[in-house]
Input
Amino acid sequence: MATKLANTNMAFSCRLALLLGLVSISSLLGAGDTEVLEPRELIRAAMEHWRGVTSYSEMTMIIHRSDWERSFSMQAWTEGDKLSLVRVTGPKRDAGNGTLVKEQNMWTFSPKINRILKVPSSMMNQSWMGSDFSNKDISKSTDIIDQYDHSLLKTETVDDHLLYTIESIPHEEAAVVWGREVTVIRDDFVMLRQEFWDQDDILVKEMNSTELKLMDGRVVASRLRMHKTETPDEWTEMIVDVVDFDVELGANLFTLSNLRNPRQ
Amino acid sequence: MLVDVGLRLAWRNLWRHWRRTWLTVGAMIFSNGLLIFAMSLQFGSYDMMIDNSLHAYSGHLQLQHPRYLDEPKMRYALDNVAAIAERLRRELSLDSISARAAGFALASSEERSYGLQIVGVDPVHEPLVSTLPGLVKQGRYLKPGAAGEIVIGAVLARNLKISVGDELTFLGSGFDDSFAAGIVTVVGIFESGMADLDRALAQVELGYFQDVFAMQDRGHSLIVRARNIDDVESLQAQVKALLESNQDISLRHWEELQPGLRQAIQADMASNSFMYVVLVVLVAFSVLNTQLMSVLERTREFGTMMALGLQPARLSRLVMLETALMTALGLVLGIAVGLVVNLYLSRVGFSYPGMDEVALKFNLPERIYPAISLASMTLGPAAVAIGSLLAALYPALRLYLLTPIEAMRAV
Amino acid sequence: MTRLFSQFKTILTLSWRNLWRNHRRTGIMLGAISVGVWAMIFMTALMRGMVDDMLNQGISNLPGHIQIQHPEFLDDPSVVNSIDEPRGDLLAALENNGVRVWANRIKVPAVIMSERESRGINLIGIEPVSEADISGVPARISKGRFLESNQDKGLVIGAKLAERLETRLGKRVVITSQDPDNNLAERGFRVIGIYRAELAAQEESNVYAARGTLQDLLKIEGRVSQIVLVDDDYRNVESLYRRVAAATPAGLEVKPWYEIDTYLAVMFNMMDGFVLIWVIIIFLALSFGLVNTLVMAIFERVREIGLIQALGMRPGLIVYQILLESLMLLLIGLIVGNMLALVTIKPLEDGLDVSVVAEGMAMMGAGSVIYPSLTLYDVVLANVVVILLGILTSILPAWRASRLDPVRALNTH
Output
């Protein structure tokens, strides 16, 4: 049970500014009666389900700093956990900027120079669009779940929901700097909170779901905030304005040419 | 009158043993000449080292965000740099002040990318603070107001396999951490000989940089180049006075910008000083030898003079006077020799095999020219003179122990 | 024969006695010679120590005495410019030709990341067996251990880098680089060792992992960035260089250290010249005093010399006697000077701390502690120069003394 839950949450913490997280929750909700299934089976089921899911969403990202704040509006398309495309729609200055993630690779398009650039590995640790998410956060896939050991720390009941607190410790060779990650998940697979602890067991950054909504038939964490513990006045918030699941996506959606010349 | 007699006596005494005197004076001339030559060359190379190193890129003074020196992050920027630069140029009536902004980016060709420092510069004033624009070997330097132009180092051009006229794409993080990307045309390729610069430095126009890197009107440094290295301190005070109200700007002296430079000079000075001291000590030995001998062989003579009522003080003054005359001779001739050597070298320059490599490492030209200054011309000879006079003290003071009877009996 | 010997003995005794007739003058001259010789040897040892340090550090930072690599690697140290591990002739040459140490190395740019910081570094894949002889890093481990096998999973970083990353021994960090196909190559590593280097820049930028582990990470099975050779003495790598160059397949570049870093080569070549110039300058300063002393000694003895000449001593013997006197003076001065040098250099063997100007020393490529290096060559050079030139300068006064006219000499008061 614990393993399964953790795996799911790892996955959804990763992808594309969490949008995929929403998808994964919903997909598991769809799978229904989770209590009965064996954890392993559940992971597999979750993964299977995952692969097929497509989504279209409209989001707002707010980047807050002590002396300024910016917000972007954007559209995103996803298919499974390895394909995603994000396009900025506002403000005007940034409109048209796009990010394509395919497997582990990431490309960025800027209309100003009308050119696609592959994000080199040395820039993967840098911030994605100035947010508190790194390029790596955006391009990670569920594969990374296998690089952790997961265990259930506790369960508790709050507001008629069972909350699972799961601790995930990365394997020795995992490309993860954290000592451990702790995730709180609700029994309907909505992730409420994720904490990143360093190897001295000091909390470095955390992400909280501050608003849950029913959207397109599924419960979605519609407002998420990521911030570093040391600098509480610097944070990034993702607000899901619209989400549609199981949408029809064009065959050429996740291609470099589409990144450059949007057809959808 | 008395002094005159003493002087004449001392002078005559000196030439009683003209060989010995000349040999001692010769040692002084040699040392003085050598010290003048070495010090002038040393000061000359320091001046050039400082001047060239600072002129290459960093300038004499820089205005920066207080935290930029320790953590050169894009975030630590100054507002409205172009306007501050303009104001400083006006108030100080000094043209060699230029604003810069700098960021990290990856320059890409096809599938490869190379990390580089992109610097936004003011094409009009940059050539006045830095020699880099003058080192463009292919193409030309940036033109004012020319967005989309870049000059890059020769090694980077080689690695990217591009030449003048080709396009280059770069990608970096802007002031707000967002992607900053640009396509620029290579208009010039510079070759400074300094691997770091040639491999990883590129310059674009400041306004273009600010636009691409979302800097608005910000920049990271104002480079100030004084007319002369000796003006730096007074210039620093002037700039400080102009900025008094502003706590967000730190004024950095070149010693802070390039701490290695001053220390390399100090280390070199320390080892050279050792050599100079040894030379002076050897001359002092020579003088000690000469004067002690000359006193010893005149023991009877001195004894007689004392018996005639002369005070030991006057005798020892005589010995010191002799030394002073010798020293003066050595001083004048030594300085003359040093001056001739220096004048010659300041025409043709000084070089030794392999100096071009060392020169490159320390930003020196391939020939160095001595700095003929009051200090370099007199410091060494003065040390020799003082050393000589000190050495003569022992023989001179010994005279106080002399008793006339014993002295007159001496061989 | 015996007569010649007894004559020599007489002259020897005569010279010795003459030398001490004016003990003050001899004492002062001895002092001058001793100080001069001391300064020659002491200064040379310090400079040698500094230049040796620069060369050793420079060479171990390259690293190696000879490198074999892709012709573009030095300009562009990328994973793309890697080469095959040695095979065939080259391997045979490396294995059989008395190469003291050789090793495959990988060097690529990478990013290292801790929980709080990330920095660009040089990621270096080494073979632990030979690394002590190549970069010397194994000996500079300050905490933990060095890598132990070609497949070791650990990572060794510099103390300064650890500080920058806010990480330490035993913690995990993530390394990110790219494979030749431009795909992301990343992996977690545990810091198993922390090293210290003389130059802060090295500590901050060089990160060491095992060669095999990096080949796996970068997906370059059987390929490396460089093949590095270390011979017995960096001063003498010509013959090895020629042998290896002959066995290296076309398309690869073979370079000795002095071609890779020409500044080091110049420092190396200039050092001997510097020592010679320094020794000669000191000698010249000494020579005035030496001649002076001899001239005075002869002057005092003009009558005496005239007398023994009148008594039939050959002028040649007078020259010998005076030269012998000068030789004795020089020898005693040398002995004292050498001993002084030895006594002053000994306590500095543990290093002369010049860390006040550490950054300046770093600019020159040297560390902040100078270890004086007393070499036989320099000591012999100083002594030989002093003796030879000393005798040479003494010849003129001695010869003049022998040419004195006995009659006039006897009449001098």
User: Anything to note?
Assistant: The first strand of chain A starts at residue 54 and ends at 64.
